[in-house]
Amino acid sequence: MIQPLKIVHTSDVHLNDEPDGHKVRDAFTQVVDTVLETESDLFLIAGDLFDHNEIEKKTVEFVYEQLARLSCPTVVIVGNHDVWDERSVIKRMDFRKAGEHVTLLNEAEGTQVEFPQLHATVWGRCMLDHDLSNRPMAAAPPRKGNMWHIGMAHGLYTDEPETERSSLILPREIEASGFDYLALGHVHAHRQMRHGNTLACYPGVCAAHMGTVPDGCVALITLTPGKGAKAVAHTLGGSSARWRSA
Fold first, then answer.
1. Which residues of 186-218 are buried (b: 16+ CB within 10 A; e: fewer)?
2. Helix (H) or strand (E) holding 62
3. Whether 196 contacts 151, CB under 8 Å
């Protein structure tokens, strides 16, 4: 029988080696802390884990160390800042150094992975180019059996399909996907939208100085049989955790 799920969803971490890079590393550490404190079943990183592809080894090792603290399934896609080209920092990585629980979705046509213990599948596409031709929701697969149907996509949500912007994600694509939850990345503010039976969400950024609100945040998602998905923005960095519904 399908079971309830708890998910932590982040994106646009933008880890870097700049003088203020410690702020981002501290924020990502708080994200991993949140996964542990909430005893979440699944952790999703929806692109732009890194700010660029000229990342030093020490920062890559930091990611391995942080993800190794977890045991729950962790799924990663690339974004436009760490796009999958010949220079990609993520292409040079081996996430097995963090543990077998980490999965990188690195196929341009999309990959769907199954987590039988969670009664869930997770799908996402690898971004080769952040341009007009890139459609993050292209070829989203149908639901697989009686399992939670989860998607990941890095791009710009818009209801204007003719706009000259890259990596568009359209309302009709979200509705047609049938995902129970769609984990989005690219926009630096927490935002939720529902089309059909699918709840899609930008989690906001974990490093406050890269966002639009005073504190960093992640999205906490609950999937409940018969009720579907609910997401809240979970604030990081305060003396006590604050919750707000979007």
1. bbbebbbbbbeebbbbbbbbbbbebbeeeebbb
2. helix 57-67
3. no
Half-sphere exposure of 66 (CA within 13 A, CB side): 22
pLDDT tens digits for 122-174? 999 998 887 777 899 999 999 999 999 999 999 999 988 778 788 899 999 99
104: which residues sit within 8 A by CB, 6+ positions away?
Answer: 75, 76, 77, 90, 93, 95
Q: At 52, which CATH number?
A: 3.60.21.10
The model's pLDDT over 1-44, given as tens digits with 9 standing for 90+, comes to 689 999 999 999 999 998 888 999 999 999 999 999 999 999 99
Paired tokens of 165: 């912007």
**Three-state DSSP class for residue 15:** strand
What is the extent of the structural domain holding 105? 5-244
What is the spatial distance between Cα 241 and Cα 114, in angstroms, rounded to a whole number? Answer: 32
- For 70-118, how does the pLDDT look when each residue is reduced to its tens digit (9 = 90+)? 999 999 999 998 988 888 999 999 999 999 999 999 999 999 999 999 9
pTM for the structure as a whole: 0.94
Q: Return d(Cα 30, Cα 143) in angstroms, integer.
A: 33
Counted domains in the chain: 1
Contact call for residues 78 and 127 (beta carbons, < 8 A): yes
Give the H or E element holding residue 140. Answer: none
C-alpha to C-alpha distance for 75 and 220, rounded to whole angstroms? 15
Give the distance between the most distant pair of CA atoms in the chain: 50
Phi (first) and psi of residue 151, to 5 degrees: -125, 160
The Cα–Cα gap between 3 and 237 comes to 31
